[in-house]
Amino acid sequence: MTQIGMFFGTTTGKTAEAAEKIQEAFGGEDVVTLIEIPDAENDDFSSYNFLLIGCPTWDIGELQSDWDAFFPNLDSIDFSGKKVAYFGTGDQVGYADNYMDAIGMIEAKISEKGGQTVGYWSTDGYEFDGSKADRGGKFCGLALDEDNQSELSDERIEAWVAQVKTEFGI
Ligand SMILES: Cc1cc2nc3c(=O)[nH]c(=O)nc-3n(C[C@H](O)[C@H](O)[C@H](O)COP(=O)(O)O)c2cc1C
């Protein structure tokens, strides 16, 4: 059993690629277990005190389809005592009114169920008009944009993982 469980969804593979880079930055598969959301059971979440949640935004402000199907299950999961960090990929140019909405929606639900959010990330360096993940100048997680700013992703991941390690206290 690893310290950290990462639950992610992906449709075209960009968030999966980010998930693997984030796993690597945390120290690899001995530290982070990757669970793609269609394979997740409710009980899997209780196995970890530290959670990483990854979801891209699809269909103009909607959850990625596997997360969309799983979302109602979150109501049956107790996240109290857990530290949770979020990440996602999106397209801030093509979908400027809904950039990264998905992690905003999942973060709101998991917080309602007791999860403690860590890993807030400044909106500086992004250009968008609206986001459900925007919590007053900070995203409620790491925002990646493989469609327009892929050259920034590696350094963003490195900095964010260092921040989350500190906030997890590991
Ligand atoms: C039809 C369509 C709708 C999209 N809607 C949004 C959106 O509302 N907000 C956003 O930030 N990105 C949106 N995107 C961009 C995707 O989130 C982005 O390409 C993401 O990296 C895909 O992740 P995945 O490869 O892990 O599925 C959309 C892309 C497509 C093709």
Key terms:
globular; Flavoprotein-like_sf; electron transport; six-stranded parallel sheet; single chain; Flavodoxin; two-stranded antiparallel ribbon; binds flavin mononucleotide; Flavodoxin_lc; alpha/beta; 170 residues; 10 strands; Rossmann fold
Question: Could you provide a short overview of the structure?
Answer:
Helices cover 28% and strands 21% of the residues. The protein has 170 residues and is of the alpha/beta class.
Can you tell me the number of structural domains?
A: 1
Mean pLDDT: 98
Order of helix and strand elements from N to C terminus: EHEEEEHEHEEEEH
Could you give a short account of the major beta sheet?
A: 6 strands, parallel
Cofactor: FMN
Family: Belongs to the flavodoxin family.
Protein name: Flavodoxin
Function: Low-potential electron donor to a number of redox enzymes.
Explain this structure to me?
By secondary structure, the protein is of the alpha/beta class. The chain has a single domain (4-168), classed as Rossmann fold, CATH 3.40.50. Helix content is 28%, strand content 21%. It has four helices and ten strands; from the N terminus they run βαββββαβαββββα. Strands 1, 2, 3, 6, 7 and 10 form a six-stranded parallel beta sheet that branches. Strands 4-5 form a two-stranded antiparallel sheet. The chain has a two-stranded antiparallel ribbon with strand order 8-9. Helix 1 packs across helix 4 (153-168). The two termini are 15 Å apart. The mean pLDDT is 98. The structure holds flavin mononucleotide. Residues 10-15, 56-61, 64, 89-91, 95, 98-101, 146-147 line the site of flavin mononucleotide. Residues 4-165 form the Flavodoxin-like domain. GO terms for molecular function: electron transfer activity; FMN binding.
